[in-house]
UniProtKB/TrEMBL annotation:
Monomer. Pathway: tRNA modification; tRNA-queuosine biosynthesis. It comes from the Bacteria. Cob(II)alamin binds at residues 67, 142, 166, 177, 224, 249-250. [4Fe-4S] cluster 2 binds at residues 206, 222, 249, 252. It catalyses: epoxyqueuosine(34) in tRNA + AH2 = queuosine(34) in tRNA + A + H2O. This is Epoxyqueuosine reductase. GO terms for molecular function: 4 iron, 4 sulfur cluster binding; cobalamin binding; epoxyqueuosine reductase activity; metal ion binding. Its EC number is 1.17.99.6.
């Protein structure tokens, strides 16, 4: 059994063995951070919340004290083992931007649910650690109040770019993060060196201008937030900007020049895209009923947002496509049980055929019992 009273050479050997085990489990990067968050990061998070940039993600505020200090989440933690798993795509995610009949799904969601893959690997590594050392551990994959990005920077995995995401010299923007909190007092890595310099491609690429300043994302304007986290009717001002994004957005990530150093050939097999999700046809997606949706996305993170929100997103993409052939799939959704679906079906109809929209509005609007949906029948 390894203990921290061992010699410096045995401590180093233990660390190398731990890192080797991590790579054997499919992780691409490894580093160790102290169990602390810098004062500047704490201040930045508090300001972000005070400005309401978290939108409806109330859990960000509800467990703020746990995010600000790992020891508030677990008093016994002394070190954090930070790990990254490569999911670099083989094709440029921006290539489908002008393919109007296609729905664009974020790279990370085209394969299996990363939560399951990473948590399984983290648990294996945690068990190995407990067997080799006298310690306790806890594992986290972005569903807990853990500041993964800040800890990843402290652990040397990369730096936070102007889009706020971690950028790696070896893997560009394409790293899933996982954390192991441990009671072991391990020697930390040096924080990653690097930076974006004068480059601002990620900010320029954002269709909704979601970056009010460097390193800060206003979630309320972010396409990933709007298509995944937001539960309501997408605000009018963002609908055109969504283009054919139907789940998440890679525009800022894919625009980063550091991606030229990424290694798609070594991305984890679990994240290789399913053919049917790499470039899905809107006409097929719009016909999905709830049972079909659950079956189609059974092993995908997309399943978590539910059929109604997903169809809402697809209808916006259909409206933006200007392809009147999609009316066949859009029209039945005008009578969908879900208000957010009916609302976006009305909007899509207005974009695809204004004459049919005007003809139906006269009779359909008075029959609609949802005020917010009824407003969609008003021509603007």
């Amino acid at each position: 059994m390894f203990t921290m009273s061992n010699t410096s050479s045995s401590i180093e050997d233990f660390r190398l063995s731990l890192e080797k085990e991590a790579y054997a489990l499919g992780f691409s990067t490894f580093g160790i951070s102290r169990a602390e968050i810098s004062a500047s990061t704490q201040k930045r998070l508090c300001r972000w919340l005070e400005e309401g940039m978290h939108g409806d993600m109330l859990w960000m505020r509800d467990r703020l004290e746990h995010r600000l200090d790992p020891q508030n989440l677990w008093p016994d933690v002394r070190s954090v083992i930070m790990l990254g798993m490569n999911y670099a795509p083989t094709k440029n995610p921006l290539a489908l931007a002008d393919d109007a009949g296609i729905g664009r799904i974020s790279v990370y969601a085209q394969g299996r649910d990363y939560h399951d893959t990473i948590k399984k690997a983290l648990k294996h590594l945690a068990r190995w650690l407990v067997q080799k050392a006298d310690c306790n551990v806890k594992v986290f994959v972005d569903t807990a109040p853990v500041m993964e990005k800040s800890l990843a920077v402290s652990a040397g995995l990369g730096w936070q770019g102007k889009h706020s995401n971690v950028i790696s010299r070896q893997y560009g923007n394409w790293l899933f993060l996982g954390a192991i909190y441990t009671t072991l007092d391990l020697e930390p890595n040096r924080p990653a060196k690097g930076g974006c310099g004068s480059c601002s491609r990620c900010q320029i690429a954002c269709p909704t201008n979601a970056f009010p300043r460097e390193g800060v994302v206003d979630a309320r304007r972010c396409i990933s937030y709007l298509t995944i986290e937001y539960k309501g009717i997408i605000p009018q001002e963002f609908r055109r900007a969504l283009g054919n994004h139907i789940y998440g957005c890679d525009d800022c990530l894919a625009s980063c020049p550091w991606n030229k150093f990424a290694h798609p050939e070594t991305s984890h097999p679990a994240f290789w895209p399913r053919a049917e999700l790499a470039a899905p046809e809107l006409r097929d997606l719009l016909t999905l009923k709830d049972s079909d949706f659950r079956q189609f996305f059974s092993a995908s993170p997309i399943k978590r947002i539910g059929r109604d929100r997903f169809i809402r997103n697809c209808l916006i993409a259909a409206g933006n496509s200007r392809q009147s052939s999609l009316l066949k799939q859009v029209m039945p959704l005008l009578e969908d049980p879900a208000a957010i679906v009916r609302a976006m079906a009305i909007w899509a109809l207005r974009q695809l055929d204004i004459q049919i929209f005007r003809a139906l509005a006269k009779t359909a609007a008075p029959q609609e019992n949802d005020v917010t949906v009824q407003r969609e029948w008003q021509e603007v």
